[in-house]
Every structure is written in structure tokens, then in C-alpha cells.
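This follows on from our talk about sequence and fold. Go ahead and set the record down below:
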Amino acid sequence: MTESPGRPEDETPGRESQREGEASPRGGEDIPSHLTDEALDGAHIKSLAEARIAEMQAEIDAQKEQLLRVAAELENTRRRAERERQDAAKYGITKFAGDLLSVADNFSRALELAPSDPSLASPDQISGLINGIRMTEKELLTVFERNGISRIDPKGERFDPNQHQAIAQVPGNGEPKDHVVDVAAPGFIIGERVIRAAMVTVSTGANAD
């Protein structure tokens, strides 16, 4: 006798209901916010993405504007420095040149005392010319000092190759070895920079006391 097919023993209606219950969310549990219908909605996601893109673009634009502003300021600073450098090269000696005008005036006044024919010059004219030249030299040295230029006159000092240039060596005439015996031309220095070394003769030490 054939048995009619029947439901398996483990597939009772109660068990099916239990499995269906396990597949569905448990009652009372909250669905995570990123899994809600609203969060998974395509239109909503697109709206959020567009808002974020707009926000990032605004930040990029602000940074770009700031960089452009800094670049413009740097360019203005460079141009200003270049203009100041050119002005310094053109007009840096304006004050010094102005001070030299008084020296030129003294030269002119001294020459006015000189006769057109030197052989006809009187002792007073010659004396006046010499005094005028001395006054001009004094004025010139004053102008140098006012502009930071100092004269180097090292007679009797120890030879300094940084400020002196030896043009000859001589017995010494009593000066110790490697000391300046005579100054052929004074030197000049501005600050710590030598404009021209003093031209000097240097003692060999012979005949020194």
C-alpha cells in the first residue's frame, strides 16, 4: 500500500513562522541612520554630494584668491625693491655731490686769485693762492668725513697689507723693519672697506735704532 506524500516532520507550520520571524528585523531595534530609506534614497544622496562639492569648490576658490593676493603682493614688493635699487644707483651720491659743490666753489675762488701770467704773480697773490688751495683741501676732507670717508696716513705705523700698498723698500732711516717710512699717496676708507690703499715705502730695518 502506497503512502501519500506528506509534509516533512521538521517543516511544521510553526517552524516556518519561526524562520520568517528570524529573517525580519527584531521588534524594538532602531535601523542605523545610513540604512534608512531616506539615507539610501538616490535623490537625497545626489543632493548631499552636490552640496559637498559646492562647499569644497568654495574652499578652493577662497584658497585660490588668497594665493593670487599673496602673489600680487610679492610682485609689488619685487618691483618696489627694484625701483629703489635703481634710484639708489642713480641718486645715491646726491648728498655727497651736493657737499662737493662747496669744494668746487673754493677752487674757483682760489683760481680767481691767480694772475693770467704766473710770471707776473706778486708774493701776495702766490700766498693767497696757496692759502686758498689749503682751505679747499681742508673743506674736501671735511666733506669726506661727513660722508663716512676717512683718510689713511700711516707714516711710522706698522705695514698693513689690508690698507697699505708698498711701492718700495728703503733702509728705514731709524724706522723698525716692516714699518712705513714715507707716504707717497694717502689712502681712503669708507666704513671697513678700503677705497684706495695708501702708497707707502717700507723699512727694511737697516739703520734702525
Summary: The chain is about 50% helix and 15% strand.
